[in-house]
Every structure is written in structure tokens, then in C-alpha cells.
Design goal:
The protein is mostly helical and 216 residues long. The protein is 46% helix and 11% strand. The protein binds fe (iii) ion.
Length: 216
């Protein structure tokens, strides 16, 4: 399973370090880069507090367990569905999901989709507008906290949603893109208007090159 760090552009730092200690990867752009869609204040809290807390909590929970020296993806795969390890799974998945999410966004977003991904979108959805409609619907309709994803399922693209910290890795689906729809992702900027956040992200911030790179 490919990590967000390996899927990310060269400038990205790894999501994990050696020695069994997971580290908070820096944002792949300045904190103000996504304004006005996502404010610097939101990014500062979201990355510096929420994401950091998942990483710090994970490190505490992993101490003394058989999972301590594993890569983040392995921790997720080995703890998924096991109630006894639910806290480790939730924090590991949230650490992974956020590291992945930062790379799904770019100030240079728009509708320029690299050709290989464009072909997949055409065969699975018809066109980009149809994909964006389905992706947006999943993000807006996810009940409570969670994530909307564009995934590769075999050779087809699919849109799915997951609750809380759950992610597509244990389902053996390959994530290409995600949108965080926990309230902490948008509440400072949009309050309860999740749909406005989702549509603004889809129209202005999606990193289609990152998504296309994840096809490999
Ligand atoms: Fe989040």
C-alpha cells in the first residue's frame, strides 16, 4: 500500500520517520496558500492542532505494542476492524488521512485534469462535471464526521464516503483524492455551510495532478 508520503510531490516530507515514531508532516504549501477558500486560521488549527494531536496520541498508544515499529499503513491494516485496537486504528487512520488530504489540495486547483486520469473519469463517470457532482454529494451527505473519497477499485474509479477516522485502505481500495468533512475542516470559515466548503474546494483547490499520480 502506498503512503501519502510516497504518493506526494518531491517537496513533501515523510508522514513517518524511522524508529517507530510517527511525525507530523509539514504542509506542502504556506498556511495562507489556500485562502480565501480555506483560511490560514483554519489550516493552522487543522494541521497544527488536530492533525498533530492524532500523531501525538498515536505515538503514545503505540508504545509497548507489537505495532510500534510499523509504517502507518501497516498499523492501519493490522488494527482495522479490531475493537481491542480501535483507538490505535482511529488515530493512525486520521494521521494518514490528514497527511493525504493536504496533498489533495493546491492553490492551483481547477479543472485541468492530466490525460490518464481524464480517460478514467470518462469511462467511470462520463465527464469531470459528473464526477464532481457525485464527489460533492458524498461529501455533503456524509452524516456527521468523515471523509469523501475518489478511489480506484480494480480498474474503475468510485466515489465513497467513510465515517469518523475510517479510510479506504482496509477495504483494499486505492485512494486518489479525499475531502475532509469533519466540522474542524470548515467551521471557522463556513460555520454550518458544509456544501459551500465542499463546492469551493472542488472548484478551486483540487490537486488533479496528485490524484493522477496516485493511479500509478
Ligand atoms: Fe480533519
Amino acid at each position: 500500500m502506498t503512503s501519502p508520503a510516497r504518493q506526494a510531490p518531491e517537496s513533501a516530507s515523510p508522514a513517518t520517520s524511522t524508529g517507530g515514531t510517527h511525525t507530523l508532516p509539514p504542509l506542502p504549501y504556506p498556511g495562507s496558500a489556500l485562502e480565501p477558500v480555506i483560511s490560514e486560521e483554519t489550516l493552522s488549527f487543522h494541521h497544527g492542532k488536530h492533525h498533530k494531536t492524532y500523531v501525538d496520541t498515536l505515538n503514545k498508544l503505540l508504545a509497548g505494542t507489537p505495532f510500534v515499529n510499523l509504517a502507518l499503513e501497516e498499523v492501519i491494516l493490522r488494527t482495522a476492524g479490531n475493537e481491542q485496537h480501535a483507538a490505535i486504528f482511529n488515530n493512525a487512520a486520521q494521521a494518514w488521512n490528514h497527511a493525504f488530504y493536504w496533498h489533495c489540495l493546491t492553490p492551483r486547483g481547477g479543472d485541468q485534469v492530466p490525460a490518464p486520469l481524464q480517460a478514467k473519469i470518462k469511462s467511470s463517470f462520463g465527464d469531470l462535471a459528473a464526477l464532481k457532482r457525485e464527489f460533492g454529494k458524498a461529501a455533503i451527505e456524509q452524516f456527521g464526521s468523515g471523509w469523501a473519497w475518489l478511489v480506484l477499485d480494480g480498474s474503475d474509479l468510485r466515489v465513497i464516503k467513510t465515517s469518523n477516522g475510517d479510510d479506504p485502505l482496509p477495504k483494499r481500495l486505492k485512494p486518489l483524492l479525499t475531502i475532509d468533512v469533519w466540522e474542524h475542516a470548515y467551521y471557522l470559515d463556513y460555520q454550518n455551510r458544509r456544501a459551500d466548503y465542499v463546492h469551493a474546494v472542488l472548484d478551486k483547490l483540487i490537486n488533479w495532478e496528485f490524484a493522477a499520480g496516485n493511479l500509478r
